[in-house]
Queue: 2 jobs
Job 1
Amino acid sequence: MKVLVPVKRVIDYNVKVRVKADGSGVDLANVKMSMNPFDEIAVEEAIRLKEAGKAEEIVAVSIGVKQAQETLRTALAMGADRAILVIAADDVHQDIEPLAVAKILAKVVEEEQPGLVLAGKQAIDNDMNATGQMLSALLGWSQGTFASELDIDGDHAKVTREVDGGLQTIKVKMPAIVTVDLRLNEPRYASLPNIMKAKKKPLDEKTAADYGVDVTPRLEIVKTAEPEARAAGEMVPDVDTLVAKLKEKGVV
Amino acid sequence: MQYGLTDEQEMIAATVRAFVEKEIYPHEALVERTGEVPQEIAEEIKRKTIELGFYACNFPESVGCAGLCHLDFALVERELGRGSMALNHFFGRPQNILMACEGDQVDRYLMPAVRGERMDALAMTEPGAGSDVRGMTCSAKRDRGDWVMNGSKHFISGADHADFVIVFIATGEDMTDKGPKKRITAFLVDRGTPGFTIRDGYRSVSHRGYKNMILEFDDCRLPDAQVLGAVDGGFEVMNTWLYATRITVATMSVGRARRVFDHALGYAAEREQFGQKIGKFQGVSFQLADMITEIDAADLLTLAAANRLDQGLPANREIASAKLYASEMLARVTDAAIQIHGGMGLMDDFPMERFWRDARVERIWDGTSEIQRHIISRDLLRPLGA
Ligand SMILES: Cc1cc2nc3c(=O)[nH]c(=O)nc-3n(C[C@H](O)[C@H](O)[C@H](O)COP(=O)(O)OP(=O)(O)OC[C@H]3O[C@@H](n4cnc5c(N)ncnc54)[C@H](O)[C@@H]3O)c2cc1C
Ligand SMILES: Cc1cc2nc3c(=O)[nH]c(=O)nc-3n(C[C@H](O)[C@H](O)[C@H](O)COP(=O)(O)OP(=O)(O)OC[C@H]3O[C@@H](n4cnc5c(N)ncnc54)[C@H](O)[C@@H]3O)c2cc1C
């Protein structure tokens, strides 16, 4: 089985984000970028499937600016076998919306014929949580989202999903799209020999036009703003005062 | 000279940095408090480093290692420099002088060292011979075909964990125009050899848990098979293999300075006095400007020196400049970081005071600042006959 893993280049989770002065979005100039943490978990899961003999090849794909190449190299250093870079924007500030990404991925799936697409449940930049679901709709494949456990058994997969209030286990037919949640695994560090090998692994470069997909944004960003600073708390002397205050505010 | 790192080099640095942040930082407070690295933590760091193929990555592929070039290895050590030296000792980087092993020394010392099975330490310094290595009095004399060693060494880092020590010892004396000159030989000495004792050294203000030990030789008998390199060839092996090790101090100083800087920058952007962030006061902001300028300068100086080694160019002066400047930069940066933190900078609730203490030794070991200045100035003036 071949596993396709889409990986997105996003602002590093340690970076304190700043809104651009004109409110059009987050400032991405000269900030540290990394692989979306959920995608790292997806790459790790793919490698584990390969190590368990359930997958033969791992193909990482990234859609965005040319610099996403670095993200793909990271995936290759972790253990992916080859990579496809689909250049869809020149400006780091142009986000490719989930529908456009899903359409391009659908074309890549057509070409590559993977048995499984393992994606992050969402990207930590825009928190859309939509690409995997849209891809499933476009391909007509089954989907298992928010996976915290994945067990592939022949032409079926058992996916444990983290849902409000607990865990839900579903059985889906392969080929499938599985989007992964935080607790699925803990991604490994790239080993030094794999870092050295990554450079020699194939990385194909394509463009959105090659796949005939229009990536023009359909959403208009009206305004981006910093979250409001949290108001300072208030110390209360005892439980009675606390209860009284809460009642006063109508919380209890 | 070349500028810029490749994607691969960036990834090596990023990986080591992530490792240090996740595997070293969480144990630092414990090591600071107790002055010890618990055995199980040491083993875990070692095991993970081996698994990742980073153990002994300064050694060549011919002995099964990664064979990093000097520049790549400097990046590894720069990121390691962020973390506790006591802990990252187990992110093993054996002395590359072990490449001088010959015959069955390869299987007894070199291979076990690079596989992480046996740990090494290196001993030159004596109470009476620090900067002046040739002034050593520790000596080995011929006796019925063996060597018999007497004397002591001190300040020997990592000897508490060492299974064997590479020891430099006087094996004779030549008369020269400038007076008597010691002949020196390197020996491989196993822990447990009769007549050889490793005992606790002094308590140091810098790098708690990274201990310095005292070695004592009392009629310690060694066969010729324990000689590393040639008899009386100690200076040759030293010059061939220890030349590059001063880069370690320089590059680790840079890594640590960057960690310290991030604390200072963050604090200046958060702490308010007189109704505004203290970073708004030029008295604070200009200190930050000077700090980052010096850090970048030291970083470039160090990487350029490493690159010269990779190009096969003479680098003695450049390495000395990097070691001198980076270690002195770290002193200034840690001092300024405390200043920016105000009174809290001195308290052990923050790691600032530790970074400041740790910085002190960097100007002393692996050749003091004065010795580096001596090397730099001799390199410039000797060709002019001065
Ligand atoms: C924590 C720690 C760990 C160490 N680990 C090791 C180790 O693992 N193995 C090892 O072999 N050694 C080790 N050392 C020894 C270290 O390399 C020496 O401390 C260093 O070389 C200086 O020697 P010294 O301390 O005897 O000082 P000295 O040489 O006595 O110097 C005293 C002062 O005189 C100055 N001075 C000396 N000669 C000159 C000169 N010609 N011109 C101008 N000024 C001069 C020095 O710069 C210094 O300021 C360690 C030291 C420390 C502190
Ligand atoms: C060991 C110790 C004992 C002490 N004992 C006492 C005591 O007995 N009683 C008591 O009342 N206090 C005491 N203090 C407090 C001491 O006086 C303060 O630490 C000192 O005034 C600095 O304040 P701070 O630590 O809050 O630093 P901050 O005021 O927060 O300063 C942080 C940094 O910002 C800089 N900064 C602040 N404002 C400006 C500005 N306008 N322009 C430029 N730079 C600026 C500072 O110079 C410093 O570098 C003690 C402190 C210590 C460390």
Job 2
Amino acid sequence: MAIKSRPVYAGFNVDITAQRHVLALEGQGADALLEKLAGGHPMLERAEILYVATGSDHDVALRALGAANYWLAPTAEALRDRLSEILAHATMCTRLYVAGTEGFIGSIVQLAADFGIANASIIKEFRGSQQRRVQCVHCKGFNDNVTISPFQCVHCDLHLFVRDHFSVRLNAFQGVCINAETPDIIPPSVEMYR
Amino acid sequence: MIHPEIIVRVTDIAVVAESVKQFTFERVDGGSMPVFAPGAHIVVSMDDQGKLRRNPYSLMSSPSDTTSYQISVLRVVESRGGSAFMHEHVDVGDTMTISHPIDLFPLHATAKRHVLIAGGIGITPFLPMMEVLNESGQVFELHYSMRSRRRGAFLSELERRYGSRVSAEVDDEGGRLDTRKLLINQPLGTHIYVCAPLPMIDLVFGVARELGWAEENLHREVFLAPPAGSPFYTNLAKSGTTVYVAEHQSLLESIEAAGIDVPYLCRGGACGQCETTVIDFDGQLMHHDIFLTDDEKVSGTKIMPCVSRFVGASLTVEL
């Protein structure tokens, strides 16, 4: 049973009222836009697309959309830097979209919060791997790309059960020691997030 | 008791603009007032010749001052009785009952910039807001629309205190708020707060939405006065009684007059606190609130007793 803090991503819906559309796409997140805008869309005249491939290959298709601006970022970090520049000079008539993995979406939500953009007003679509970014609640270290539960914290070696409890502020799920009472017993890991 | 109350004495009454009086309340027991957040309101109970009236008023005093509260009341021409009572029958030294502060119009801490838009007496919640924003060094501007300078309560004091951050749009000087111009270039992270008559709120929100503003950044305070209408009866299923709602009374007031406690906060059709389930009716529900969705209004299963009425043969609600 999902708990309340588990993020829900409503999916891409173009807000036609926005005067400017800024889109941050990671990997297969590009499909969220390409599928929505197959056949073109008037919003593209006012759209700036930032794309980081991370193993996928949508560069040609995205370029062909003919958006007002398009940039293929070399890394997610470079994409976020460029996005910060854009948001620093943007007005309230701007709509922000993000699609990709959960960790990428969360990193954009965090960045946008610094510019006063409410989480709820960002249009999001989840695409790609379900792997999770997990914070160890004991040593506070972050573990990226977690696919199994329990897993061993790379920082403190505890065996962590991955909860559905997600922190927007930290952009991470919470990992809790699974065998604190019985240190000798290490439950087998199961692949949870492909 | 659902609504804890405070017994206060009226310690000062001042005319602060044409048709606007400012009232100062202190506790009869000499204690401190509860601390409130800017934007909060209180509900003032009035004993009008045996008839209980309850009206919401925004707190306008300094949030850091717990010795007293201040509110300002516009004498409404077509008053149902509340504002007329405050203007004509309340004197310094009188004892009154007020609610604890209720905050349905808070400042948003994540905002980078606050644009405050007041229409007439809607200026009141912005007085404590500006004080807090100013003290904490946050960026804000006030746009204050009024019919005439004589009716613009607190304008000169605000101009003196906040300088160019205050702009007045005065009707009889040909001034008019250019909402589109105001909203089109606001930087990301701007929140707008509107306290004004409903048509002005609708206008500002309408322009903001047209320009693509996010809903999360739009905030409004409105207290709708319960409209008068034909008298009607309402059956209260749980209480096993029937109340009569007079022409100038709201359903909520008639239920309270019967000695039944109903949850409420704004008493003006906006907050949703008094939402009541309709069990059965033969007639037409006259929805006057801005809380229920259009679908909910059409469904005939809910009513907001603070402002909405009924026309027809019979109405039964779950109270």
